Amino acid sequence: MNETFTRIDHSTGSVHAGYGDMHHHNYFYNSYTASPFGQQTAPRSPRRIADDQLRLLRQRFVDPEGMGEARRLLAERSTVILHGPSGSGRTAAARVLLYELHRDSGIFRELLPGDEGEATLTDPGLVGAGDRLLLDLAEADGAGWARNRRDLSALRKAVHEQQAHLVVVMPYDGTLESDLQFYRAKISHPPAQEVFRRHLRLHQIPHEEYLQSAPALADFLDEQPSIEEIADFADRVRRARAEHRTPDDFAGWCEQARDARKAWRQEVAGLVAEQPEASQRALLCTTAMLHGAHADVIHHSTELLLRTLKTPRSTLSSIEGKDLAERLKEISASAGRDGHVRFDQLDFDAAVRAHFWDHLPDLRRPLSTWALRTAELVDPHVTSDLRGELVQRLADQYLRTGKWRELANLAEEWAAADTTSRARPEAAVHALTCGLENKRYGGGFRQLIYTWCRDKQLSGELAYVLLRVCTDVIAPTHPDQAMVRLHHLARRERGATPALDALSDVVTTSSRLRRRMLARLTRHSSVPAADARLFLRICDPVPLTDPGGAPRALADEDYVQGCVTFGWREVFAQLPRSYWQPYAQRWLHTASDTGDHHDLLLDLLVDAAAGDGKRLATLYAVARSAEPTTSGGPARGVATTDRLLQKISAAQGLGPSAARSRPTPPRGTAP
User: Fold this and answer.
1) Contact criterion met (CB below 8 Å) for 92 and 64
2) Looking at the predicted structure, is the pLDDT value of residue 622 above 80?
3) Which of 312, 335, 641, 657 is exposed most, by the fewest CB atoms within 10 A?
4) Does the reported pTM lie above 0.70?
5) 30, 36, 56, 34: which is closest to 502 by C-alpha?
6) Average per-residue pLDDT in the chain?
7) Pairing between strand 333-335 and 184-186?
8) Residues 6 or more apart from 27 whose CB is under 8 A from it?
9) What is the pLDDT of residues 51-85, one digit of tens each?
């Protein structure tokens, strides 16, 4: 593979995390944000992204009954199994429990047993020191629950040994053995009224407004809705208020939120039937896809849709035909005081989108083409948020109707195109994000992205798009999968190394991930030159010798020592001295700075030379060149070089033994 990597110079939106059982859309945070002058800001780590998402979730969360017991069990026994009915927010509760345990060591992540490339629950390397683990089996069938339940004993043992924490969400109708009952906490729905008001407070609606009487709200809450339904209802109230819909008071907003729960199918079908002209149907479709956009955008995008469909335009001059206000009125829409166009009925736009998608299937492909062309419009009213909403609405139709592969192919087409448009790769990122965050199809998207990272020709901006979704979407909750995909991207880089930089950022979040990456890079009897280059970045002596919150540093583990020795041996064999010398100098400088691991770091380099006189001589020459830049002064560097010479002499049988042999990692295995 010799595809080159594309540049990282795009901007994007922000992360948004919602409430309930994975009910959220991520309107994308760009880890590599470019300024107007081409300067990049520092990327945000996957750990920071995950913690920010959990923090937003915590702000929306209301404790259900039983949450106190769940906290007690998790604190005392490191494991809790949540048992609650569907719609009670049990997965949200699990995430909040783990967020409240935020520590300096370890990372949050979701376990996906059975997912392609995921470790089994019995894998001894699955749990890192201080990790916060979520095992969401709420939707598992009987066989899946039984299979994973059998492995919980081994997983709990690893959690205890690593001073980590585990929250399991079990199926509501699942059974538990007597020994697991010890960890069960039963939760129920939180107070619906308080959940609703919490959302309104976060929407910055003054309490004096939502404390007013609202019969429509009372009727809704009497239905005992799920947490997700309450969140949706609160969001509709927010939108009704923001759009100044009549009647403009809390009771009126709740009435509109209640009415918006209806599907509007018959009303939309009737409206479409009443508008046989192509221009009016195009206006109806455009208003639905760009709902809330400025009237100028609606007008120009409608014309663009007609051109995309190759529909003949009216022969009337613009001043002879109906103006936009009259045309909007005919489709039950209007431009508000802010100039933005909305339908008269709340959530009518979603019904219109579904109608066009379901009943005019020949429109689907042209509509996708039009959406991209609209996103590429140069117009001050076409903002990044509007582009994101447009792609989101298009992706929702693909996913709603089970056409996830078609959505993935569309995103690939957008990403691989040879273009200077910044909107095109951003649209691809948004589309893949929608797929990855979809509860039903997320696993299929992760597997497809794995295949692309490994084998796909990286034309156009595809490498950039894959890098974005790996670091910003997959890594925060599934860092192992992100690490594997970034590894495949990084080994194909030529010149710039954005994927390697991102891989290093992911590995930095966890000693466990660094250990697993070292194992991946040294698991075969011969390491490719690309992996030897990657090894030098991953095998950073500073984190290797810093235990952090773990009982001991990675460098003190026999397995890691074997990986390091083998990796350096391959570096010496395959890479020129000019390439590896800066890394070796950092290694020697770190040895000079650390007392506990001074000899160990030198031993590993000498062992890697494997008694080869030429390599040992080169290593000694590199040490001499590193002396002037040693922190603490050249004298400390000279002392390190002298100690290294003693070990080199011992390795050549010229003096007393100063080095001990290091174990070589068994090929094809990992901790």
Assistant:
1) no
2) yes
3) 312
4) yes
5) 30
6) 88
7) unpaired
8) 13, 14, 15, 16, 385, 388, 392, 430
9) 888 889 999 999 999 999 999 999 999 999 999 99
Number of alpha carbons in the 13 Å side-chain half-sphere of residue 167: 32
Preceding omega of 85 cis (within 30 degrees of 0): no
Q: Is 651 in contact with 626 (CB distance < 8 Å)?
A: no
Residues making up the chain, counted from first to last: 671
What band does 661 get if pLDDT is binned at 50, 70 and 90? very low
What DSSP string describes 586-655? HHHHHHHH-STTHHHHHHHHHHHHTT-HHHHHHHHHHHHHHGGG-TT-HHHHHHHHHHHHHHHHHHTTSS
3-state secondary structure of 66: coil
Q: Copy the structure tokens of residue 586.
A: 């950092």
- For residue 656, what pLDDT is reported? 59
Q: Which are the contacts of 288, defined by CB distance < 8 A and separation ≥ 6?
A: 343, 349, 350, 352, 353, 356, 393
Distance CA 399, CA 355 (A): 15
Q: Which two tokens stand for residue 40?
A: 């990049």
What is the tens place of the pLDDT at every residue in 204-229?
Answer: 899 888 888 899 999 999 999 999 99
The alpha helices in 13-66, defined as continuous H runs, are 46-60
CB neighbourhood size of 231 (10 A)? 23
pLDDT tens by residue, 228-255? 999 999 999 999 998 877 778 899 999 9
pLDDT digits (tens, 9 = 90+) for 486-506: 999 999 998 899 999 999 999
> For residues 468 and 481, what is the distance between their CA atoms, to the nearest angstrom?
14
Coil, helix or strand for 405?
helix
CA angle 209, 351, 257 (to 5 degrees): 15
Q: Domain-by-domain residue ranges, the chain?
A: 63-186, 192-259, 277-344+347-382, 511-671
- DSSP per-residue letters across 78-130: SEEEEE--TTS-HHHHHHHHHHTT--SSS-EEE--TTSTTPPPTT-TTS--TT
d(CA 519, CA 139): 33
Under a CB-based contact definition with an 8 Å cutoff, are residues 622 and 637 in contact? no
Residue (of 436, 434, 439, 438) closest to 447 by Cα position: 436
Contact 57, 20 (CB under 8 A): no
β pairing state of 132-136 and 165-169 = parallel
Q: Which two tokens stand for residue 391?
A: 């792609």
> Using CA atoms, how far apart are residues 119 and 121, in angstroms rounded to an integer?
7
Write out pLDDT tens, residues 467-491.
Answer: 999 999 999 999 999 999 999 999 9
- The predicted structure's pLDDT at residue 106: 84
Other beta carbons within 10 angstroms of residue 212's beta carbon come to 11
The token pair that represents 214 in the structure block: 């609202």
Nearest to 74 by CA among 156, 6, 179, 170: 156
Angle ∠(100,97,146) on CA atoms, nearest 5: 150
The answer to whether residue 23 scores a pLDDT higher than 80 is: no
CATH number of 63-186: 3.40.50.300
Let me know: does 31 contact 468? Beta carbons within 8 Å. yes
- Residue 378 pairs in a beta bridge with none
Q: What is the 3-state secondary structure (H, E, C) of 216-277?
A: HHHHHHHCCCCHHHHHHHHHHHHHHHHCCCCCCCHHHHHHHHHHCCCCCHHHHHHHHHCCCC
- What sign has the CA pseudo-torsion 246, 247, 253, 256? negative
- The b-or-e profile of 536-565 (16+ CB within 10 A means b, else e) is bbbbbbebbbebeebeebbbbbebbbbbbb
pLDDT score of 43: 55
3-state secondary structure of 56: helix
The SS3 call for residue 203 is coil
What is the pairing mode between strands 108-110 and 333-335? unpaired
